[in-house]
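Support request, please re-run this one:
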Amino acid sequence: GKLFKKFLTLFGDLFVNRYFGFIPALVNASLFLSFALLFVVSLPIKPDIKRDVYDSKIGSILVSGATVLEKPLNNVFGPIAKQSLTFLTVKPEDKGSIDLQFTQKELAVDFESERIMFEFVNQERTKFGVKPLIWSEDLAKIGRNHSKDMFSRGYFSHYSPEGKDVGDRLDDAGIGYSAAGENLALAPTVSRANSGLINSPGHRRNILDPSFSKIGIGAVDGGVYGKMFTQVFTNLKH
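Re-run finished. Output below.
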């Protein structure tokens, strides 16, 4: 009886190792590939390469899976990891500024990403029973100018180097309001920016705030450095 049990145990171990022993190796390979792709899309390389990764069905799945680990990595490594992965933002109430360590002068407004982000915001509001926002081209211009300014002068903040915030930018443009808010994001794609903002409590509050009635979004493509997004919310008086 004991000999037979030993035989079954040995046979079972051999069978499992032979036919299922590849599973741990496959998991490890998937994790390695995920981090490799995540590293690729976070680097300042040609946009076409990043786009190919995200457009690939397998690549997009692996990168999405790897980004789940960004939060614990940020907790461990702090601002360094925060700037090296695929999404950068600052809290809506934060008065600090992040030095991007680069400047970019070759910029283009990404109207398609603005449209996609606008639709996403209203889908989220509708999902939670909040009235959809109305698009404001005046607010979009303010957002575009701020996104361009951050790229061209190499900073990331709700405050310009001169200390002006979204309220000052609205005042300078002669736009009346009684409530205003701003969300910022730097990401390789609009989908990454959307997921990052909606999963951040402070930014989510702005997106779902029922006191806001209008929005303008400034999406600016910085080429190898990704896309800068500035969401401007108000309840315009006019």
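The chain has two domains: 2-83, 88-236. The longest strand covers residues 177-187.
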